[in-house]
UniProtKB/TrEMBL annotation:
Keywords assigned: Signal
Protein name, as recorded: DUF3221 domain-containing protein
Signal peptide bounds: 1-21
This protein's record includes keyword Signal: yes
Length: 103
C-alpha cells in the first residue's frame, strides 16, 4: 500500500513538472522584428515567426521588470520573448515579461 502511494505521488509530481515545462514553451515567441511603433510607455514590435505567424509584442519598462531589463529592439532583429499571450479576432499579442535574446 505504501509503495502504491509513493508511485502515485511520483506520477503526479512528474505530470506537474512536464506540464509546467510545456507551458513555458507556449508563452514564448521567437521571430524577426518587422516593425516598431513607439508609444507613451514603451513600444509595440511586430514579430514574424518562422511559421509565418504575426505577433504584436507590447514591451514596456514596467512589464519587463525595470530599466535594467528593457531593450529597444530594431527592425530586422531576431528575438525570443516570454510573456502573456492573448488573441483578438484577427491578431495575436504578447505582453512581454522577459526579453530572452536579441540577435
Amino acid at each position: 500500500m505504501k509503495n502504491l502511494k509513493r508511485i502515485s505521488a511520483l506520477i503526479v509530481l512528474m505530470t506537474f513538472v512536464i506540464s509546467c515545462a510545456c507551458m513555458k514553451d507556449k508563452n514564448t515567441v521567437s521571430g524577426k522584428v518587422e516593425a516598431i511603433e513607439f508609444g507613451k510607455d514603451g513600444y509595440t514590435a511586430k514579430i514574424n515567426t518562422d511559421k509565418n505567424e504575426v505577433y504584436f509584442a507590447t514591451i514596456s519598462i514596467v512589464n519587463v521588470g525595470g530599466p535594467q531589463n528593457y531593450k529597444v529592439l530594431k527592425q530586422g532583429d531576431e528575438v525570443s520573448l516570454k510573456g502573456e499571450l492573448w488573441k483578438t479576432d484577427t491578431e495575436k499579442h504578447i505582453k512581454v515579461k522577459e526579453i530572452v535574446s536579441v540577435k
